[in-house]
């Protein structure tokens, strides 16, 4: 645990008015010790805060603050968590980070498995490293929902897949959470011939028995890069295997819908694209709880695009505009269809769509979010791009400046001599970027 040393006090804040100074160390809030940001936020969720600090001279300082129930008092700490991130103790046979090439930025190699980030940031955790204290805190603070990487509920299979003897405890922990009314969203990374078929049926059955505490389940295909030398032998899903997954998941979800009024389990868009099957309409995803797992992204994009296009149809593009879009090979057909319909409906618009093969990670990686700047440059140099190149914002890190290979947006613009505009997975924004020169981001 890092000490909760105050590194900043916001100007005019309640903390500043109370006399808190940079360098003071927070010891407790309302008599409760503060170990990290969860303690800090939980114990501050009151209209009065009695805070104890240790100042830089070694003296105890008491600060009393009256505040709104969830009002921020204006303190900054060295890290967001007020602690160090907790790393993963598993050695999963399918871990994507183990398949990264050398030489990438250090942050990409860190494997987190931190229960706090599940609640605060929506990260998925495995429960393997969850301590008794953390489990008690989740239930006592009612930290809900918790996002869980399940993969398999059979204890022996889960231990085999995650290569951690503690991995077999997961279903028991989930039953405990369900008993305390903690909501859970579940992720199943499917590995061909390992946790699909009968194993997947068992997993879905075990998880569905915890409904309504388990409120959604995503089934996603394993991601395999070309950097797997010395790693567990895994095979990618092909068209037939993807279709089999969709048949199993579809039958289960339709049966659950009849009995409970919700589908509960959803297959990732990738399975539909690999099986060359039509992706369901947006309404069938019931609130889009699993977007981060690539579940419903295409449906949401398509619905937003259709709505926006219906409003813009018939209005000519003036002056005429040529624009290009780059995406991964998986989504190419979807984006190309959107572009063709936009061109047909809007006179003066020409939209060129390019599928970028993932040479950096390997051809088995086909999602747009893992396309690198280097692949964009190499495959689009000399191509007709028009006045602007649109790319999915998911290709970039949060700051919107770097691709996974540390190539910058400005590098791509310079090499291709074209403006590059990142666009969120939003159909209306995509059409606006196609027709009016970018979504203003």
Care to describe what's here?
This protein has 14 helices and 14 strands. The strands form four sheets. A four-stranded antiparallel sheet has the order 3-2-4-5, with helices on one face. With 441 residues, the protein is α/β, with parallel strands linked by helices. Helices cover 33% and strands 17% of the residues. It folds into three domains: 6-77, Pdz3 Domain; 97-294, pyruvate-formate lyase- activating enzyme (Alpha-Beta Horseshoe); 300-436, Rossmann fold (3-Layer(aba) Sandwich).
Question: What characteristics describe this protein?
Answer:
Pdz3 Domain; Rossmann fold; 14 helices; 441 residues; alpha/beta; pyruvate-formate lyase- activating enzyme; four-stranded parallel sheet; four-stranded antiparallel sheet
State the share of residues found in helices, binned by percent.
25-40%
Oligomer: single chain
Order of helices and strands: EHEEHEEEHHEHHEHEHEHHEHEHEHEH
* Tally of individual helices: 14
**C-alpha termini separation:** 38 Å
Q: Looking across the biggest beta sheet, what order are the strands in?
A: 3-2-4-5
Please state roughly what percent of the residues sit in beta strands, choosing from under 5%, 5-15%, 15-25%, 25-35%, 35-45% or over 45%. Answer: 15-25%
Stretches where pLDDT is under 50 for at least 5 consecutive residues are none
Query: How many beta strands in the DSSP annotation?
Result: 14
Number of domains: 3
By secondary-structure content and strand pairing, the structural class works out as alpha/beta
Average of the residue pLDDT scores: 94
The whole-angstrom Rg is: 25 Å
CATH class label of the largest domain: Alpha Beta
Write the CATH architecture name of the largest domain.
Answer: Alpha-Beta Horseshoe
CATH homologous superfamily label of the largest domain: pyruvate-formate lyase- activating enzyme
Overall spatial form = globular
> Biggest β-sheet: count, sense, barrel?
4 strands, antiparallel
User: Could you say what the CATH topology of the largest domain is called?
Assistant: pyruvate-formate lyase- activating enzyme
């Amino acid at each position: 645990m890092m000490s909760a040393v105050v590194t900043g006090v916001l100007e005019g804040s309640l903390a500043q008015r109370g006399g808190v100074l940079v360098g003071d160390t927070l010891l407790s809030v309302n008599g409760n010790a503060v170990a990290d940001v969860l303690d800090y936020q939980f114990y501050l969720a009151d209209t009065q805060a009695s805070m104890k600090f240790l100042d830089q001279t070694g003296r105890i300082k008491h600060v009393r603050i009256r505040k709104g129930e969830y009002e921020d008092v204006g303190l900054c700490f060295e890290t967001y968590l007020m602690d160090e991130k907790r790393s993963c103790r598993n050695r999963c046979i399918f871990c994507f980070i183990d398949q990264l090439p050398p030489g990438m930025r250090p942050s990409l190699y860190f494997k987190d498995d931190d229960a706090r980030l599940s609640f605060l940031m929506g990260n998925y955790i495995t429960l393997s490293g969850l301590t008794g204290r953390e489990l008690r805190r989740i239930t006592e603070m009612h930290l809900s929902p918790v996002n869980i990487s399940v993969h398999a509920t059979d204890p022996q299979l889960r231990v085999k897949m995650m290569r951690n003897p503690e991995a077999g405890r997961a279903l028991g922990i989930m039953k405990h959470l369900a008993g305390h009314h903690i909501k859970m969203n579940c992720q199943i990374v499917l590995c061909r011939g390992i946790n699909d078929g009968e194993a997947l049926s068992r997993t879905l059955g075990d998880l569905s028995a915890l409904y309504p505490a388990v409120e959604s389940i995503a089934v996603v295909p394993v991601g395999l890069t070309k950097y797997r030398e010395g790693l567990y032998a895994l095979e990618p899903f092909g068209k037939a295997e993807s279709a089999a997954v969709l048949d199993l998941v579809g039958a289960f979800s339709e049966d659950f819908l009849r009995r409970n009024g919700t589908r509960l389990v959803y297959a990732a868009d990738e399975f539909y694209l690999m099986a060359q099957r039509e992706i369901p309409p947006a309404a069938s995803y019931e609130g889009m709880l699993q977007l981060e797992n690539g579940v419903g992204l295409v449906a949401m994009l398509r619905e937003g695009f259709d709505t926006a296009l219906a409003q813009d149809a018939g209005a000519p593009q003036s002056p005429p505009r040529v624009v290009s879009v780059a995406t991964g090979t998986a989504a190419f057909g979807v984006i190309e269809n959107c572009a063709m319909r936009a061109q047909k409906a809007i006179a003066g618009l020409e939209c060129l769509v390019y599928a970028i093969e993932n040479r950096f990670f390997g051809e088995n990686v086909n999602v747009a979010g893992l396309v690198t700047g280097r692949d964009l440059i190499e495959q689009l140099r000399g191509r007709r791009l028009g006045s602007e190149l649109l790319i999915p914002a998911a290709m970039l890190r949060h700051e919107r400046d770097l691709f996974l290979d540390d190539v910058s947006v400005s590098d791509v613009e310079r090499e291709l001599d074209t403006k590059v505009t990142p666009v969120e997975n939003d159909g209306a924004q995509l059409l606006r970027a196609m027709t009016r020169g970018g979504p203003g981001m």
